[in-house]
Amino acid sequence: MLTDTHCRNAKPREKLYRLNDQRGLYLEVKPNGVKAWRYRFTLDGKASMFALGEYPAVTLSEARERSEAARKLVKQGINPAQQRQLDRIRKASEAKNTFEIVAKEWLQTKDWEDVTKNRRLDMLERVVFPSIGSMPVREITPTHVLDILQKTAKRGAPTVAAEARRTMSAVFEFAVATLRADSDPVWPVRKALPANKTQHKPALSKEQIGKLLSDFANHRCSFQVSHCMQLMWWTLARPSEVAEAAWDEFDLEKAVWRIPAQRMKARKEHLMPLPRQAVDMLKRLHAITGNRKHLFPGRDDRNAPMSAASLRQALKVLGWSGAYSPHATRTTGSTRLNEMGYRPDAIEAQLAHADQNNVRRTYNHATYFDERRTMMQEWADKLDEWKGQA
């Protein structure tokens, strides 16, 4: 058996020679001074050699460990040289199947609107890809996933953490189905974070509404954000429905906004009456963005709509983020319109809350539009009044 001293003191000769260790392992000393470990084995009656690395980069003990691992493969009828080549091919293939690549491929399989896909991709790029995007999907562990979820939750974004958890799990399920992963590492840590309970902001008082609208009017934010906020208050539409609105949805002569089914939460077309103030604003806005598809083009991509997150950012700058969120506009509108004496059915119809009774739903759709037109005009007039009192 060799010792490290034997290996270290072995000098080159005119011809290659070998120093035997044990069980087929030997050190090959070349005339140029290179010392290489070799493992000699016989498989299917044929003698072969397997390279284990060069000394001293690979020590004697490491060479013995490698030769033992190779010997176990031979006992199973596997050629260690061929197995190493297969391992290299597999690793090269896995390196190409990173989480980011698989996630983007998964997104393309979804029958979603482009805006929905872009919103999900934006979350992945902000929250997930920086940590595991470049990693082979097969090498990602529950520890990696838990780290992402905990960091996201700790920075005060439990809703985003929940979305990240659901999305990562879906991507891993897709990877398993396409034979690029063995399991879903999200599953073991799926309950590591407390269940996210949506925190609905309370309705604003009349004084708060006036102050908010006044703050926005005096804030030097972009005209797009300002007009988007105004249209949301005048119609009580959802933030994303307003931010992603397209010009071909509007008939300004008839003062009607027809939101297509694919952009509605309930996937049913919704008609919105437009108060006078909204029509006047949209006519002015058309002179600025009328040559674009969307009322409020994106900042970075003018062919895409702005993000509803721009509204939340503006509220944060104004100091309103703790007391009010864009979606709370609908809660506030519902509360105040009920106080103004309007029928709940008309208010619910304006908010596009589907009636569970099929007969009532058909009746409501047929009769409430005119009532809603009167209601929303008085609502817009009240907003002007409250803003003027702030």
TrEMBL record:
CDD domains according to UniProt: INT_P4_C
Superkingdom as given in the UniProt entry: Bacteria
InterPro entries according to UniProt: CB (IPR044068), DNA_brk_join_enz (IPR011010), Integrase-like_cat_sf (IPR013762), Integrase_catalytic (IPR002104), Integrase_DNA-bd_sf (IPR038488), Integrase_DNA_bind_dom (IPR025166), Integrase_recombinase_N (IPR010998), Phage_int_M (IPR053876)
Pfam families: Arm-DNA-bind_3 (PF13356), Phage_int_M (PF22022), Phage_integrase (PF00589)
Domain Tyr recombinase: 199-376
A GO BP annotation: DNA recombination
Bilayer-crossing regions: none
PANTHER family from the UniProt entry: PROPHAGE INTEGRASE, PROPHAGE INTEGRASE INTS-RELATED
Protein name per its UniProtKB record: Integrase
Organism of provenance: Thauera terpenica 58Eu
